[in-house]
Amino acid sequence: MMGIKIIATGSYLPSKVVTNDDLSKIVDTSDEWIVKRTGIRTRHYLGEGETHQTMAEAAAKQALERANIDRSKIAACIVTTLGGDYITPTCACMLQAALELEENTACFDMNSACAGFPYGLKLAQGLVTKERPYALVVSCEALSRLTDFTDRSTCVLFGDGAGAVVVEGSEDTPDICAILGSRSNQPVLYIDGSTEEGPSYIHMEGQAVFKFAVDIIPRCIQWILDQAGKTVEDLDWLVMHQANERIIDHAVKKMQMPPEKAFKNIAKYGNMSSACIPIALNDLYEAGQLRSGMRVLCVGFGGGLTWGGCLIEIGGIS
Ligand code: ACO
């Protein structure tokens, strides 16, 4: 059994920065309401010349340059996303050429909504081999394309961005102890598939999703810790999906953790679905706060409803 470590991170935030005051010009909202109820102050949207693909490529290239590995030893490139520029080819398939990956690399997109990143890591762990021990997990979301800018209860929440990690598998590395789950509940959070009715938008009953999140997250964290034989004291960081600052604070309180161990960047970027966790990891790296040997517990939750988390070590970062 091979476990994996994160050996490099990367991210890309698109150029257009939108403040709460900007949104209050198009819907009946205010900076005060958004900050108090969510913790969000700004978010990034795709700007001129930027697409889902350009974001994914930029984040992946940054992670690969930092990893400085032999690309022929990459077994898989997994993109987690609610949807890229095309239904086919997938974003991951287009990354094969852009990143100069060998053709015998498994490249595919997967959708577990906001829980996508831990799902992607678990798949990556299963795909690396002794001969080809590396995998790339890229989480890329263009939520501004799925946002109904007439609905104040959702349009203030979301942003665009991409995060990427390079992982390395080895028999000496512990299993990431991933816990992945799902509970069918389409009405509380959904995005229509292709229809003739018009654009597909995110529809969400915020309170119902909030209740789901505060119930499942502490349980998910505890299941992962139990499986790994660790306690919250063994964690260097808790990196959660950044959907609402109050959800993160609730989890920290419930787990009786020091609040400074729970990383937050929701104020700058809002909810970027599966991209939140790897972007947070890259923010930590760029702040000099992610070092080899650290243990990070990641937890995502969202549409489906889905949830997932894992405990992953950092390697190769001095
Ligand atoms: N500005 C001002 N007022 C607003 C806004 C706004 N942007 N949005 C809603 N309101 C109003 C409502 O109309 C309501 O008014 P009323 O009391 O007169 O009826 C009041 O504010 C309270 O609304 P609630 O929906 O009860 O507000 P709540 O405190 O629940 O916050 C929020 C809403 C932020 C959406 C919260 O429920 C939440 O974060 N839910 C979880 C979201 C989440 O975790 N999503 C994860 C997955 S996302 C994905 O998968 C893409």
TrEMBL record:
Origin superkingdom: Bacteria
- Give a GO biological-process term: fatty acid biosynthetic process
Chief site of localization: cytoplasm
Q: Which UniProt keywords apply?
A: Acyltransferase, Cytoplasm, Fatty acid biosynthesis, Fatty acid metabolism, Lipid biosynthesis, Lipid metabolism, Multifunctional enzyme, Transferase
Its pathway is: Lipid metabolism; fatty acid biosynthesis
What is catalysed by this protein? malonyl-[ACP] + acetyl-CoA + H(+) = 3-oxobutanoyl-[ACP] + CO2 + CoA
> Where are the stretches annotated ACP-binding?
242-246
Where, subcellularly, is it found? Cytoplasm
The answer to whether keyword Acyltransferase applies is: yes
- Where in the numbering of this chain does the Beta-ketoacyl-[acyl-carrier-protein] synthase III C-terminal domain appear? 225-314
Entry's Gene Ontology cellular component terms: cytoplasm
Entry keyword annotation includes Lipid biosynthesis:
yes
UniProt-annotated catalytic positions: 114, 241, 271
Q: What is known of its domains?
A: The last Arg residue of the ACP-binding site is essential for the weak association between ACP/AcpP and FabH.
The record describes its quaternary structure and partners as: Homodimer.
Q: What HAMAP family does the record point to?
A: FabH (MF_01815)
Q: Which family does it belong to?
A: Belongs to the thiolase-like superfamily. FabH family.
Q: What is this protein called?
A: Beta-ketoacyl-[acyl-carrier-protein] synthase III
Underlying gene: fabH
